[in-house]
Design a protein that fits this description.
Layout (H helix, E strand, L loop, with lengths): L1 H4 L8 H15 L4 H4 L1 H21 L4 H25 L3 H36 L1 H13 L3 E4 L2 E4 H17 L3 H28 L1 H11 L5 H40 L5 H11 L5 H17 L3 H27 L7 H45 L1
Antiparallel strand pairs: 1-2
Length: 379
């Protein structure tokens, strides 16, 4: 038993061996950083989020094509996955097929809307004074009102509007600005399709890249948040598509079949597409359709009929169709939505308005997951 008393043997140095193994394990598997410095990872996470927000704010003028392409890719990804499982065809080929179909739909929309849009713009621009006069008469009648000591009637309002537009266009650089804006719109339109094609063909890699941005210690939590957010966010975007289809159909029935307005198909398609832009889009579509209705209507009854139509359309979308297709999970209180729209638009323009509700839903899912974790730990 002498060997058992020597420190180098297993019998006499069991504790020593265990200690050495523990030391080696400690060197190989150091304690996670979060256990050593609890606040470091959280501060790093907030720093990363703040840095990304500042960067996006600085480059907000180029974000719209990427946002639109990302949303379309996100909505179409399940369809591509389903087709891949059903047909066993290469995912890249299916993605390019979906891209071609979307481009064909956009081309068909342009073919249906483009000529009518140009015609309506030329008609309104050619008789802008008369259009504004008739619209003002529909709102205030044939009388006048006094504001700050100055009298206004329909003709005076039309004069002021036309003169303001003429002065604006007469300013130095105004025409150049319009040309630059037109070029930017065309470039952004093309860039949107390029971004969409890339995202459709490489969604898994993009998803892994987004997860990589999350600090390692928080990736499990981020995955739980995403599992909660994904169905809600997907339902929101699909619901928006259904609302667009409903708005287009209802607008065509109201404008074309009931009110008998010319170019009702153009106005209906425009109404549906503008539903994609929250808050601003519905107002813009109502104004455009209102200008056309005023242009074509010869009686006050026709203008009032259009007002009732516009009100009925908004009520049906906001009170019935919207809540049904979006569901309770994607529901955000109207006051919160308005605040998100205004703050998002103030910070990021059109992009902020489009992403206002998705960001609110993401924040809601994050807090719900975090609060459940806290409740589990407290139990």
């Amino acid at each position: 038993m002498v060997a058992s008393d020597r420190p180098g043997t297993l019998e006499g140095s069991g504790i020593l061996v265990n200690d050495v193994q523990d030391a080696h394990s400690a060197r190989r598997d150091p304690a996670p950083p979060q256990s050593r410095r609890p606040g470091t990872t959280t501060l790093a996470t907030f720093a990363v989020i703040a840095g990304i927000a500042v960067f996006l704010y600085l480059v907000q003028d180029i974000l719209l094509p990427f946002v639109l392409g990302g949303i379309l890719a996100y909505v179409c990804t399940p369809l591509i996955g389903w087709l891949h499982r059903l047909t066993r065809l290469p995912r890249l080929g299916l993605a390019m097929g979906v891209l071609v179909v979307l481009m064909a739909v956009a081309a068909l929309f342009g073919f249906l809307v483009g000529p009518s849009l140009v015609s309506q713009i030329m008609t309104v621009a050619g008789d802008l004074h008369g259009t504004v006069t008739r619209l003002s008469q529909a709102m205030i009648g044939d009388g006048s009102f006094t504001l700050l000591g100055q009298s206004f009637d329909a003709t005076t309002i039309a004069d002021d509007v036309v003169n303001a537009l003429q002065r604006r266009l007469a300013q130095d650089g105004a025409l150049l600005t319009l040309v630059a804006l037109a070029i930017a719109i065309v470039f952004g339109f093309v860039l949107t399709w390029v971004v969409l094609g890339y995202l459709l063909s490489d969604v898994p890699a993009v998803g892994k890249g987004l997860i990589w941005l999350v600090p390692p210690d928080h990736r499990t939590f981020a995955s739980r948040v995403w599992r909660r957010l994904d169905p809600v966010l997907r339902r929101y975007f699909i619901g928006i598509v259904l609302i667009v289809l409903y708005a287009t159909t209802a607008a065509y029935v109201g404008l074309g079949l009931i009110l008998g307005i010319h170019d009702a198909l153009f106005l209906a398609l425009l109404t549906g597409v503008l539903e994609l832009v929250p808050l601003v889009g519905p107002v813009a579509s109502a104004v455009v359709a209102g200008l056309v209705a005023v242009q074509q209507s010869t009686t006050a009854e026709g203008i009032l009929a259009y007002v009732f139509y516009a009100a009925a359309l908004r009520i049906s979308i906001d009170e019935f169709v919207g809540p049904i297709v979006l569901g309770k999970a994607a529901y955000v209180r109207p006051v919160v939505v308005i605040f998100c729209f205004l703050s998002g638009g103030l910070l990021f323009g059109v992009v902020g308005v489009i992403l206002a509700v998705p960001v609110a839903l993401a924040l809601k899912a994050t807090l719900a997951t975090l609060y459940q974790e806290h409740e589990a730990h407290s139990d």
